Amino acid sequence: MTDAPRPEARAPRGFNDRRARDLAAERQILTKVSAVYERYGFEAFDTGAFEYADALGKFLPDADRPNEGVFALQDDDEQWMALRYDLTAPLARFVAETKEGLPKPFRRYAFGTVWRNEKPGPGRFREFTQCDADTVGSAWPEADAEIIAMAVEGLEAAGLPTGSAIIKINNRKLLNGLLTTAGVKDDGQKLAVLRAVDKLDRLGPEGVRLLLGEGRKDESGAFTKGAGLAAAGAEAVLAFTAAGAGGRTETLDQIAGIIGGSAEGDAGLAELAAIDQALKSLGVGVERAAFDPSIVRGLEYYTGAVFEAELLLKTKDEKGRGVRFGSIGGGGRYDDLVARFTGEQVPATGFSFGVSRLISALRAAGRDLGDQVRGPVVVIAFTPDDMTHYFEVVTELRNAGIAAEVYLGTAGMKAQMKYADRRMAPAAIMLGGDEIAAGKVTIKDLDRGRMLATDVADNAEWREQRPGQQIVDRADLVATVRKIVDAQKIEAGK
User: Which CATH number fits domain 20-369: 3.30.930.10, 2.30.30.100, 3.50.50.60, 3.30.70.1660?
Assistant: First the structure.
């Protein structure tokens, strides 16, 4: 009888294994952001991992490709279900399902795993954690402003210093007014204009001007057909996108001079003016939230205000080269989403960010929350004969609220110390026969040792200093270890 072939140990593409460092960073972010959202009066809310596939809107699988864009399966009643693609579509389903008894506005925040059946790539996963906040049932522009203010405060609570990120705000109605002013005739031309504007950061005004007109040839010689706007229309678009250089009031004045008189444009200006006033009342200055007419992403989805959070911190890649990280979250007003279920328009606005992307942004900026993770205190096991004493020590530490473990491998002392260091243990406990007989315990402060090791010239000096090692009475074990753990917490909080 032949043995069955062994499976290859491999994770599916786009699905990531995460250890304590990643999980601790995520937990810190969600805890701190949740505290901000609850302080603003938003309630925690979650839905199941699966939704019926037809509830997912534009990600709805077609008859021939039931897994297109989502991970779907057929229930025992032959209905297609799919893992949730985001946290917004389930919210819309819930509001539609409970519309009679749900108090409105409904203010909720949610964090949870979402799944996307898309091609994975660097920093792009098929499974990741998302954090959302939404107000459903309020058409007031002030609801948009509050979401923006809360997003600013939430990102700062997550670890981004004030001034390291900015929320850029636009309004779909302004763009519709601009397109009217620019002489856009149909949906195809509209899409070409928006795509051209979206390339402003990469191509600059001159490159976008070509794409707004007849077209542009890139460095490889490939030609991209332009939107076909007349020169005056192209200049109006470029003037519109450049209007965000000043403060919020100055930006509105400049935009009004370009698209004023358009019904939709004037409505968008009025909404942004109300958002500006509310942001001032909420203490959010232009350095934290600014109007930027060049923001065009997601405008087929959003119905009014649209906003995008951009990281301003200098970041580096794995090779130490400076990179532009760009967007770390976004949102806006989406008044049509619930109407898919009920036929009735329900005003809604929200903001979302990917937790993994924010963690990546913080690491790229040298602010890794996972660096604060520490493992348990490790008790070195010299001999099986003294296991009773070792477990008495860890029990005493655990009862005092200090994480601790006895080393239960087969390695010698040197390898055990290496194990403790790799676990990022704050301390190692050594309890040999002499210590047991004398009622003593040897404690090595590993955090202090790591710190001192970076400041000495060579290993000889390091050994001479014997950093952080002390022998104390057995009765002083918990108090001594607690000082070491608390000192690490204070250092991490600086």
Answer: 3.30.930.10
